[in-house]
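Lab notebook page, bench 4
Experiment: in silico fold of construct C2
Operator: M.H.
Input chain length: 109 residues
Purpose: comparison with the prior construct
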Amino acid sequence: MTRRLTHEDVPFRTYRRRGDGRGFTVKSVRLSAHARDQARHRGATQDEIMQTIRDGSWLPAERGRFAASWEFAYNADWNGQHYRTKRVRPVFADEPDEIVVVTVYTYYY
């Protein structure tokens, strides 16, 4: 039995300034099944995750991975409480040909 592909199965691309300051690198960004589930459960969108990886500062995380954070204006309710800001923090592996997001944390305040 074959499984039908959804938009979540298609990797999206991110552009990142190269470390030497001479242009950009382009890599596919793929969310693991766990990251997709956590993003849905915690209220993060794929667009927010991509923007965070593209524009946020990469910091070392456990097991040779990286984490980045980005704050978004939210001004909405989450779990019955109103919040002005949402911070999205994906944890990901920077592989040679792609970036693999392993989990996503979201903070509201």
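Observations: The chain has a mean pLDDT of 85. Residues 9-108 form a domain with the YaeB-like fold fold (CATH 3.30.2310).
Next step: discuss at group meeting.
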